[in-house]
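Quick one: co-fold with zinc ion.
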Amino acid sequence: MTSGLSGKRRGALTPVAMLLVAVAAFGVTYWVVSSVTGGNRNGSRATPVSSGSGVATGTAGVGATADAGASVDATPSVGATDAGNTTGNSSSNTGAAATATTGDSAGTDVAGTAPTNGLPLSGKVIVIDPGHQKTANTSTEPIGPGASEKKAKVAGGTRGVATGIPESKTVLEIGLQLRDALQAQGATVYMTRTKQNVDVWNSRRAQLANDKHADLFLRLHCDGAAGSKTHGISTLVPAKNTWTAPIVKSSAAAGKAIQAALIAATGAADRGVVKRSDLSGFNYCEVTSVLVELGFMTNAAEDRKLNSADYQQKLVAGLTQGCIDYLEH
Ligand SMILES: [Zn+2]
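Sure, here it is.
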């Protein structure tokens, strides 16, 4: 095909005309190509950024579809996580930022790329769900796909008796630190939300974990009790029911590892691993899922701890170790 075409051209022009045309064309082409290439280069340089953003957009797209007609905020929060990371990293190539980029781009573009190889959580995808949000969404959704029983889309959560801080804020703070810690161990991490003012239903949070084919859907909560003395940490896992059968075993193993690591890291009272069949976040979930109750905000001492930098670091260390203990095998 190519030689036939050039034969035709040769027949249409004299050698001298061809030479002139070729010289003129070369000059113009060189000029055009070099300016276009320059433009493309700029574009290419931006590509790593936009590939991250592209993924974030994809995420946003998923959220948008899922939340169509229900909540606009849910989408940007998910997308904003990735976009925020990517932008921050691309504009400032500092060491710390580079670590975060690695975590993000490794999983989103090509899972397990070189920079994260050898780290304990390389190639693993974890979706962190800081429970609740600034304002509860009291409209209801079925507690599982097709269920007649319904629950609030997002419950209000508890509040610190000593600090007055809402659970949603405490678990978001811890969740953001946990994201960084897990990324530093090589994991690809997605957040169901990165700010308070969102409206992301529990079923949508689980759907994000499904969409990302998460190795672990890790839900962060704090507990509340009628009495002020109750304190300690427990980890909730799915009980076997119509929806959860495929994830019961792996979730129990993850829950056991994470609960043990949390207790070791914090010295908190061990309230054990508890099976639950009534949680929408589990029932819509198709991947390994646990919900940690990090402590009681209705206990003044534990409330203060939960909202202190020192104790939050211990919780993050315990959660990270628990993820490694479970996911490394
Ligand atoms: Zn909660």
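If it helps, Strands lie at 125-130, 137-142, 150-154, 188-191, 216-223, 233-238, 270-276, 289-296.
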